[in-house]
Amino acid sequence: MGRRLAAHWQLILVVLLLAGSLVVLLLNSVAAFLLPQKELEARDNLRTAAIELAAAARPFLDEIPDDATVDRTLPAPLHRNLAAETERALAKFPGLEGGFYVNGRVDQFVGFAHPDGQTPPPGRRDPPPKETPSIRQQARESLTHAVSDPPLIEVRDIGPSRVGVATAAVGDVRPARIAAWVMVRLTGPDQQRRELVRYRISTILALVGILLALGLTANLARSLQRERTRREKLTDELRKAEHLAALGRLLAGVAHEVRNPLAAIRSTVQLWQRFPDQTRTPASLDAVVTAVDRINDLVGQLLQFARAGHEERLSVDLNAIVTETLELSRAQAERQGVRIEADLASDLEPVAGSAQALRQVALNLVNNALQVMPVGGRLVCRTRSFAEGVELTVADSGPGVPADIRDRLFEPFFTTRPDGTGLGLAVCREIVTRHGGRIELVTDVLVGATFRVILPGTTAMDSGGKS
């Protein structure tokens, strides 16, 4: 129970490690794929935002004084209006900041708006200091671009950051007096290096997790193999113990069966010694011979029991064996008034086994059936093929088998007849078992007893050997 529980938790750990490692690798792959896509999406947003911001400033071109491009600053109301338009235009683009650049002897940035609509610090109208020179240069270039040209977009590494800037001239006059600018902060080189380090660490950890999971899997496989070996060993030991117990019962039965006729022989011989003239009669001699024959018959059946199923295996026609057995028993059946019927399948599959051993099984079953019908009855033998192989049934119309002894029918030396050895059905079971089949008593019949023998056919034996 403890080993099974440990293996259960170890399997759960393997699954969790594999699942977690694969998820990390998948997320890293997705992130690495999406990183360039983010910059492309940012470029599209910059282009659209610059166009919309330039269009929003068109109504205010007439409010810009002609001398604003020389040395005068724009009026405060115009600053507020442009700032309001900037916030309104950039509200649709989270993360962007922008405003306007007015060209002149004194450059001016107006209408500046922080990302997400934040209010700039007091007096702050310029872009962030580090980005101001590059934005000014790009805005000046845009003032002379043709009206049909798209916004000018550039991506630069400024310090630890990566910045994307789009600029577009306002109005149709060139050179224009004012340009709209929009900026977004992308993943900078330092951030990219940090992301790369994070990706590498997480990937290494994921690979370590996979290797650990594979190691645990190998260890689990070894544990399962050891458990399987242990179970096989226990099963083998149990089989040996059962075999020894069966051998003990067999020896006890042999001792009992041999002791009785030996006792009869001993007592007869002792009488001969004491009263040789009176006791040495033909009847006493017949009694000794009968006792010796009984011992000899018992030894023969024991040898047959020991050799059961060890004969050479060939392709055997079970129908022929049943037919031969019934012919041998027909004379005895006629003397007892027993009607024999054979229902043999014409398409019966051959059986891989020993013809001599299987003939002994059929003969034992038929003799048992005749012995329970001394004054008439009906004996039916049937064969058929089915999924498991080949089936032989031997049914009689005798008194049947009492329920209290059915479990002991196939035990060696168990018999209900005074002159029986109790080895007939035991030999049958041993032979059938060694042929890979089984023998059983059918308990759902209303009259008599029916024994069923199931044997694998040659096709099943071939497929089992190949697999």
TrEMBL record:
<keyword id="KW-0418">Kinase</keyword>
<dbReference type="Pfam" id="PF00512">
    <property type="entry name" value="HisKA"/>
</dbReference>
<keyword id="KW-0902">Two-component regulatory system</keyword>
<keyword id="KW-0547">Nucleotide-binding</keyword>
<dbReference type="InterPro" id="IPR036890">
    <property type="entry name" value="HATPase_C_sf"/>
</dbReference>
<keyword id="KW-0472">Membrane</keyword>
<dbReference type="InterPro" id="IPR003661">
    <property type="entry name" value="HisK_dim/P_dom"/>
</dbReference>
<dbReference type="InterPro" id="IPR004358">
    <property type="entry name" value="Sig_transdc_His_kin-like_C"/>
</dbReference>
<feature type="coiled-coil region">
    <location>
        <begin position="217"/>
        <end position="244"/>
    </location>
</feature>
<dbReference type="Pfam" id="PF02518">
    <property type="entry name" value="HATPase_c"/>
</dbReference>
<dbReference type="InterPro" id="IPR003594">
    <property type="entry name" value="HATPase_dom"/>
</dbReference>
<dbReference type="GO" id="GO:0005524">
    <property type="term" value="F:ATP binding"/>
</dbReference>
<feature type="domain" description="Histidine kinase">
    <location>
        <begin position="253"/>
        <end position="459"/>
    </location>
</feature>
<dbReference type="InterPro" id="IPR036097">
    <property type="entry name" value="HisK_dim/P_sf"/>
</dbReference>
<keyword id="KW-0175">Coiled coil</keyword>
<dbReference type="GO" id="GO:0000155">
    <property type="term" value="F:phosphorelay sensor kinase activity"/>
</dbReference>
<keyword id="KW-0812">Transmembrane</keyword>
<feature type="transmembrane region" description="Helical">
    <location>
        <begin position="199"/>
        <end position="221"/>
    </location>
</feature>
<keyword id="KW-0597">Phosphoprotein</keyword>
<protein>
    <recommendedName>
        <fullName>histidine kinase</fullName>
        <ecNumber>2.7.13.3</ecNumber>
    </recommendedName>
</protein>
<feature type="region of interest" description="Disordered">
    <location>
        <begin position="112"/>
        <end position="143"/>
    </location>
</feature>
<keyword id="KW-1133">Transmembrane helix</keyword>
<keyword id="KW-0067">ATP-binding</keyword>
<keyword id="KW-0808">Transferase</keyword>
<dbReference type="InterPro" id="IPR005467">
    <property type="entry name" value="His_kinase_dom"/>
</dbReference>
